[in-house]
Amino acid sequence: MGRFTKTPYLVLFILLGAIGVGTASALITITFEGFAVFKENVQMDKDLHVDGEITGPTIDRLGGGAPVDCSETNLIPDADLHGCSFDSGALTGKDLHGANLSGADLSGQDLTDTNLSGADLRGANISGATLTRTNFMNADLTSADLILASGSDTIFTGAVLTNAELNDTTLTGADFTGATITGTILTGADLTGATLTDLDLSGKNLTGTTLTDAIITGTILSDTILLDATLIGLDLSDKDLTGTILTGADLTDATLTGLDLSGKDLSGTILTGADLTDATLTGLDLSGKDLTGTTLTGANLTGADLTGTILTGTILTGANLTGATLTGLDLSGKDLTGTTLTGANLTDTILTGADLTNATLTGLDLTGKDLTGTILTGANLTGTSLIELDLSSKDLTGTVFIMSDLFDTDLTGAILTGADFLDSNLDEAIGAPFEGCINHASCT
């Protein structure tokens, strides 16, 4: 056994397994203050000089770079553990901040409560590891493999994750604030409740990723692929979703207020319970969707297709449904106050008991509709066909019937105060003369 001192505290032991003119194999152990901090099998050539330096062209791990078991090494902060492997559980709860673990094999390790802040983990294999409360703050995880790793409350703040593989990981509650994610793969990752504040996810492929209840304040999502992603409860209200793909995404209970979703392919997308207040949904195919509990207050649904849509508990007040297809929908009892239905297709649509107060129904053909219990107070029915309808006893205060066709319509007992019948057809209308209305000879 040979010994030399490089510094007063660093002793290098070299155990030569074979010495010859050519190469020799050796086990090198470096100790620091009595503890082994590095142990490695090496191949070395004849230019070995035991004088405090190892020189020569070749110092390589045996087995072409296979990981060396460093489980018995003193695991301390800033330790050089590059390329090492470890026994199961050897790193749990350890403080290895600043350590060099580049190329290390940490696959399947339990890293619960392990401190790896500032560590060099470039190219490390961390696949399948348990990462509960693991601290990767400011660590360099460039090109690291974290596939199928799992845990909760993992800390990635300030970490470099360039080209790292996080696909199919489960990292609930993880904090990625300030992380660098250029080229990071996140497909299929479960990031439920994760903090993604100010991250630039533009153009990133998040197919199948779960972002339920994630914090995305300041997060950029333009051109992001969220195909089949789970976005339950996510607040997207201030996001620019230009080019973002939401096909098949689960947006149950998500907040989408004010967003422009026009032109999106929402086939398979779930919008149950979502808040789409003032959102733009022009021309969208929403046919057959379950919009139970969805809020569409003030939403622009111009030209949208809602054929066969389930609207149980759906809020539509103030929505713009101009030219929308509402074929066969049951709107009975629905609050449609202030809704615009101009030019909508109401074939077989049920309006019994609907509240159309101050709604705009210009140019519609309501002939043959059962309007029992339907409220039309203040509605704009300009140019609408109301032939032979029963409007008896309705409160039609302020309702606009300009140029409407009310041939043989029953207005017996209706309240017509301020109702405007300018240029309307009241031929054979039942209940004339009509008290309180304006702009027609039948009004008194």
- What is the H/E string? EEEEEHEEEE
Q: Enumerate how many helices there are, as a single number.
A: 1
CATH topology of one domain: Pectate Lyase C-like
- Portion in strands: 5-15%
Helix content: under 10%
Structure, described:
- There is one protein chain.
- The protein is largely without helices or strands and 444 residues long.
- Among the domains are: 1-66, no CATH class; 361-444, Pectate Lyase C-like (3 Solenoid), CATH 2.160.20.
- It contains one helix and nine strands, in the order βββββαββββ.
- Strands 1-2-3-4-5 form a five-stranded antiparallel β-sheet. The protein has a two-stranded parallel ribbon with strand order 6-7.
- A hairpin with a 2-residue loop joins strand 1 and strand 2.
- It is rod-shaped and about 105 Å long.
- It starts with a strand and ends in a 272-residue tail after the last strand.
- Mean pLDDT is 87; it is low at 1-64.
Keywords:
444 residues, little secondary structure, Pectate Lyase C-like, five-stranded antiparallel β-sheet, 9 strands, 10% strand, disordered N terminus
Summarize the structure.
The chain has 444 residues and is mostly loops. It has 1 helix and 9 strands. It has a 5-stranded antiparallel β-sheet. Strands 6-7 form a two-stranded parallel ribbon. It has a two-stranded parallel sheet with strand order 8-9.
